[in-house]
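Hi R.,

Here are the chain sequences for the assembly we discussed:
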Amino acid sequence: MSANVTNADWAAVLSIAVLGATGLAVLVADLLARTFVRRYIAIAIAMIGIIAAGAIVFAQYGTHYSAFGGAFVVDYASVLFQGIVLLGALGSVILYGAIGEERRIAGALALMLWSACGAMLMSGAGNLMTIFLGLELLSLALYALCGIAERAGAHEAALKYLILSSTATGFLLYGMGLLFGATGSVALSALSNPALATNPIFWTGVGLFFVGIAFKLSLVPFHTWAPDVYEGAPLPVTAFMSVATKAGVLAVLVRVFLWSLPSQHVSDMLLPMWIVAGISMIVGNVGMLAQRDLKRMLAYSGIAQIGYILAALAGGSAEGFNAALYYFAAYSFMNLGAFAVAAMLSGDREEGSVIANYSGLGYRRPWAALAMTVFLLAMAGLPPTAGFLGKVFILRSSVETGYVWLAALLIVGTAISLYAYGRIVRAMYDRSTHPVPAAKPFVPLAALSAAICAIAVIALTFYPFSR
Amino acid sequence: MMLLLALLVPLAGAIACWALGPWLRNLAGWLATAAVGISFVATLLLWGAATQPGGVHLALFSWMSGFDFGLTLDPLSLLWALIITGVGFLIHLYSIGYMHGDRAFARFFAYMNFFIFAMMLLVLSDNWVGLLVGWGLVGLASYFLIGFWFERRSAVAAARKAFILNVIGDVGIMFAIFLIVANVHSIRFADTFAASATFGAPLLYAICAGLFIGAAAKSAQVPLHTWLPDAMEGPTPVSALIHAATMVTAGVYLVARCAPLWSHSPRAQMLVGTIGALTAIVGAILGTAQWDIKRILAYSTMSQIGYMIMGVGVGAYAGGVAHFFTHAFFKAQLFLASGLIIHALHNEQDVRKMGGLRARTPLAFWAILVGVLAICGIPGFSGFFSKDQIIQGVLENGHPWMYGVGLLTAGITAYYMFRLFFITFLGEYRGNVDPAQLGMAPEAVGAEVAHEPASTGSGEAHAPAWVMNLPVALLIVPSVLAGWLLFSTDGASSPWSRFFAAQFPTAAQASAAAVPEWATALIALGVVLAGIGVAVARYATRSAQANAVARLRDESLRMPKLLVNAFYVDTLIDGVFVRGARLLGSLFGRILDPHVIDGAVRGVAASAVGFGVLVRALQSGLVRAYALVIVLGVGCFLAYYVFGIPR
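And here is the predicted structure of the full complex:
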């Protein structure tokens, strides 16, 4: 790699630098501001930093260049994935306005911002080193974030996440090692050499790499950690994991598996991925059925939804990629929104994550219930939400590219999920039950987030962005 | 195809017994026995093809160049396969009676069938990787079966010890295989042997040493032998099949299989021969000091394998392999017959508590008598031919001191085997004598009571079913006759040497022996008779029988500490490896704060309440269960990516 680092190189990672610096600023501000508003000061600084980073990212929209000798890439995909990462960070940071111990907020925010830095690095990664760097930055901060709360469940989640995630990282790293061994280069562009299409070391490397990716995306059979970790982690962290983490990893998946592999035999090489996607749709949706914890349910929901997104990518067509991005954006809004509603209902003990507490909500908190209904309908893929349109796009793409069986599994999965989501909606408007959980009367930031997400989930239906 | 059948039917049997165990109940035993029988017949049908030059070869698949996986059946692997499935069949049949009423009846047969599969894989593979996989799997099966009665702390400890010592051996083998693959770029035996002439002496010695560490651990050679006596914690059929007839001879197989490597490295031959000779005599000496019938047999197994290793080590391949052949019969028979006694006496294993059992267990009496005559090498019985061939072979290959050790060991063997025989069957039944009067240590008494919980005895000696008697009776035939295959009037053209003519070309330097074969036989016979004489004088005379209780008490109390503690090798090995491994484990346990782990597990139990039925089984909340799922998933993935490559 050449030592000539130009201004353009720095411009490519400026947004990440801003985000990282914001994390420091939050910590410093927390030291200085020892008043009752310090929770809000910290959140405000974090939000300003995220929005600034977002502005920098979207200023690059339409440009296409690689920085640091190919280690980092700025293109359409990097901009959109980074945008979703920042969206996820924003939606999660805002939840700290509703829950979390005040003295720990600043640390959590800083860690979350740095974790987002990792995800953004992955979004634009141009070689294996950058991928690993981003992944570790993302994961290390997340381990700490999971365990930062006082609750016993949080410590358990953190330990579990650490152990299992390290296992997966080991596989990923081994895969990278084999890929490097087969190509002699860490650059993703080196992976497209046609001679590699029949190289066993290369194939094994691809397989191990995918194991690592599948774990981070919580695809079946590497999903087992997700429900426990989602349930145990603090609510904002769960929201962050469900969106920002997946955005970063998905970006890597697209760059490595869809855009870098040699075109010969690529469908053979990727077949296990689509099979895993199909299984994930079914297992995720079935797993949702008997859950009593909202975060746990959303973990299973996320398993299935990632399956949908992979199904969109299966054909490898540009249209499929757009469908995947669209659905992923919609998924981000609905998940963030659902977590925001949960935060609105939560006191010190995260009452909002207990599904039983939602019965009768339509009469106690009509607006929250309405927003939740929108999100659940979107997850189930019913009109008039972006979830519906996204699934239509995915189905069209799968059928056109010949993956009809994935489309069929998607429909089956959706049918199963209707029951799980519908169960909550029905409970919210059930007149017969009126338990009154302790909840804060009004939580401005979380409510704002829920409202924005609800509007976005519906509005996206009318503005299906495409390239 | 037939070869694949012979390999896979036991695996299918194992899976069926494991998966359908609760439904099969007692049928599981018959199913497993039938699976081994089918495997035996399939192997037998390949006899003709296997003895052709080149044998039977079945290419399964190849990964990258040099990584070709296949099966092969040549005279050497044919012999092993026939013993594994043939003796295995009889022992399975026996187990149906022996394990009757055990709570985990089906699980036992699943393990046994799995062992047969693993052992077949070991001997049928034509490449290092297949051998290594089989090697590891037989160790695993052995581990499961030693610890089969896991309610017993001693069984679990024995299983763990066997596992740890075998891991040492596995590391040695892996080391050797890495060296081979790095230098030959192929995993096939044939390529390795073809290239072995080009290896430098240090490389060849390193490879041979690595392989022999594995062989020594698996075949209980000094100083890695300590697990074998403890392995007698397993059910008696397991001792007969795995820890006498087949698995423990895997080391002999490995050395014989790698004959081309050894024959190029005299230093390695010296190493193997020395260790074998040492094991033979150490095992025999320790065998004289045991009271547990199965431990006596275990030490004799160790000693006899020492013979085999010594033989194949110095180049007397046909002799070493022949002793494996005859030993498999008479040792399996000895174990099964002792199982009859143990069964009849409600799990009594201490010979001091036996005595006068001839009338009570006549079949065991005759079977053990024949087995003892065979192992001692009385002319006409099988052991005579094979043992003499080894003793003569080491001399022909220029190792006179091993010749001496071999003869001496034969004498000691005769002594302790007849000691076993006399104490068990002569005199009065001592089962009702106070253990203290027999010189038994109080803690040993307590341990014996808990032995072999398989039995569902009703309080009186119960006659074993025919399934137990038949295999014992059948094994008497080859125990007597098998040796005659080695006999020839002109010394060269026996059926045995013709069978192995292509496998082991007669070494050039052989035949220049100082002592002719007939003289060796006479000397050996003299030594053996002397050993028997000592045993007769000590245990079989009229006065010895009359004062049996007092004499056994004297012997127990005066037993040299050195022998009771098995030369303290156990203490040493236990201190270094077993305790070392445990220390390492607890160290890790302390680093990963136990409270955190405990808390994790308990916390999850509470959260694991409301799960979907389908997902519940996998979602136990335990990190290790999740890790298992991940590993299985990775296995599926790798299988696809490693073997799915287009060509």
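Residues 444-463, 591-619 of chain B have pLDDT under 50 and may be disordered. Chain B is about 70% helix and 0% strand.

Let me know if anything looks off.

Best,
T.
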